[in-house]
Design brief:
Two copies of one chain form a homodimer.
Chain A (H helix, E strand, L loop, with lengths): L12 H8 L3 H9 L6 H14 L5 H8 L4 E6 L5 H16 L3 E6 L5 H13 L4 E5 L17 E3 L10 E4 L1 H14 L6 E4 L5 H16 L8 E2 L4 H12 L6 E4 L2 H13 L9 E6 L12 E5 L1 H18 L7 E4 L1 E4 L10
Parallel strand pairs in A: 1-2, 1-3, 3-4, 5-11, 6-7, 6-8, 8-9, 9-10
Antiparallel strand pairs in A: 10-12
Helix pairs in contact in A: 1-2, 1-3, 5-11, 7-8, 9-10
The structure holds a DNA duplex.
Keywords (chains A, B): DNA-binding, Transcription, Transcription regulation
Organism (chains A, B): Cellulomonas pakistanensis
GO molecular function, one term (chains A, B): DNA-binding transcription factor activity
DNA sequence: GCCGGCGATGTTGACGTCAACATCGGAAGC
DNA sequence: GCTTCCGATGTTGACGTCAACATCGCCGGC
């Protein structure tokens, strides 16, 4: 954590002032765009800035203003579909608000790592913090610096921190009901890992829906979000003659399941129907095009930033705010009635 | 770009000092971990910090030290495969070095936007800058603050800025030669957009390889990296009876091509062979598993950070350093000899 | 010709931290 | 008992910027 001492010390406002033959304050006025500077003086200052390659020292401004124009963002595996798209949305919205985003990733799902990341970031200069992750191991009460605005992408934080989450439950109900409507007797479930809160929510909603509909509840098949885990589960499913419909907790696992089924000679959707979750850009272009539950990551990101900005700007306290972003079922070609 | 005035003015070192009944300097000593503080005094200070919820003001430290422990990262569409994986690697390596990453995205490929992003970031305090993008419209000589260390993920910058790039040329040769070896008379090419430098490099290498092998060069089919564009191109390809092999500039377009071919009743690889580029995690689990050129985004990210840190740490000047990260062909099931 | 007033510019101090130097008090050595 | 030394703690100033206040010079009005 040792950081190179004394980064390039660049020219300061005083250097510009000297070169332009004015006081530092006049330079400051020019660089903040104040009105009351004679055009001729302004020109001279601008020329001096240009010559020296001056740009204002943000540390000094931040110190002066008590604000950094930066928000921190903690994510677990940031190359993953949901994460990267949410981050993209946050970054875009933040830019519109004049803020920059500081990114920290967290290696393991453990809570120690999160605490560490929070410490790292609050050590950095941030005006607020967004946490994009949802591991069940994450402590619900985070050890945050006092008065630090926070927004979290996990509805488990309700009552602790303002949260934004997709509507896992409705999405799951739509998916399962779609399969039941097609005539399937029951629906198998390929779940995400045990330590993922959204995975747990999807699995619980699936179970509840089956129970509520009086259907048998097959054993849950647990994957780890990767296509590979879906593939391995798919091989087991292919051997299970009773399975006719599978609801997968994400699209990657669904793709793995489909490939395993093909390899085993079982056709999708003729022999088995498969539904995914997320609606990744490729979902439509898999073969067959995947029926899936669409989540709007972009909106999640926007809402997160909005919640955060309201706290930063307005000093609002939003502790138990919870925003649920709707999900919807996109029916494509991977689902059909069960074989006769 | 106006930023909320005066963020939460938390307790300062002086408040802690007063509560603990010591001087500010002693508090500073405790918080920087200096040795020479009586254990009893240290305890009292720590207790006071705890009570007030003190954490050191990073802006003040940055001002003092002249370093933010932050590097800037500019990317175009950061949710895209290559971008997000490279970013992930950069963030991870940066953390290992004790640095945080500040993210700015660029909406359009135009150079004005890049200049703007650079300005935004150097306005922030960063110790170095990584630019992950490769649009041909990006000016080769960037208007950077003087003395700002930079690393760029585009080999076009050679001679201007230290650059890291995947070996597009070798990757392309491997892919095309693989198809020729299988017995295809020639290879069609689905290219990325005109404004992408890697797309141009792949297309040029493809053309060169065909010419060098004395094969006819079919018209280039230009997509925009999305699966949808691949799908539309695929429909045209399906109608072209002469096409037996297609080299696509990325995996998403390859997936779109494959789907279009299936819809048109043409089998992959029996009727047409398809090769992609990138080796996205899903490539192996498409149907059929996609033969593709693997690029190591993680390594690209690592190298970028390494180049940057060498400049930040050692004051090295690396202007014409160029690192080429190898690519390799991963043969799966989407390629086969042409139909008899 | 003097004065009020106003716009342009300069001066001072404060933001929070920490390094360098100053001071203070006690223990060891003679 | 007095000096010396050393470790613990305090004081000062500087990092770069900008708001608040001070000053300066000029113009117009009488």
């Amino acid at each position: 954590m040792t950081v190179a001492a004394r980064g390039r010390p660049g020219p300061s406002i005083a250097d510009v002032a000297q070169l332009a033959g004015v006081s530092a304050q006049t330079v400051s006025r020019v660089s903040t765009g104040a009105e009351n500077v004679r055009p001729e003086t302004r020109e001279r200052v601008l020329a001096a800035m240009d010559e020296l390659g001056y740009s204002p020292n943000h540390a000094a401004r931040a110190l002066r203003y008590g604000s950094f124009g930066t928000i921190g963002l903690i994510a677990h595996r940031l190359a993953r579909t949901g994460e990267s798209r949410t981050i993209e949305a946050v970054v875009e919205s933040a830019r519109a608000e004049g803020y920059t985003v500081s990114l920290v990733d967290v290696r393991t799902p453990g809570s120690a790592d999160v605490t560490d990341a929070v410490a790292r970031l609050s050590h950095q200069s941030i005006d607020g913090l967004i946490i994009i992750r949802a591991e069940t191991a994450t402590p619900v009460a985070l050890a945050l610096p006092p008065r630090m605005p926070v927004a979290v992408s996990d509805s488990r934080f309700v009552g602790h921190h303002p949260a934004v989450g997709a509507d896992q439950v409705t999405g799951t109900h739509l998916a399962v009901q779609h399969l039941l409507d097609l005539g399937h007797r029951t629906v198998h479930h390929v779940a995400g890992p045990d330590d993922s809160a959204p995975a747990q929510m999807r699995a619980a909603a699936w179970r509840e829906h089956l129970v509520g509909s009086g259907r048998p509840v097959p054993e849950v098949l647990v994957g780890d979000w990767t296509a590979r885990s879906g593939y391995e589960i798919g091989r087991r499913l292919a051997a299970d003659a009773s399975a006719t419909a599978v609801y997968c907790a994400n699209d990657e696992m669904a793709a793995g399941v489909v490939r395993a089924l093909y390899e085993a000679g079982r056709r999708v959707p003729d022999d088995l129907s498969v539904v995914g979750f997320d609606d990744i850009p490729l979902a439509e272009f898999l073969w067959p095009p995947l029926t899936t539950v669409q989540q709007d990551f972009h909106q999640i990101g926007d809402r997160l930033l909005d919640l955060l900005m309201r706290q930063i700007r307005g000093r609002e306290t939003l502790t138990d705010t919870r925003i649920v972003v709707p999900t919807r079922l996109v029916v494509r070609a991977s689902t059909a009635p069960p074989p006769a």
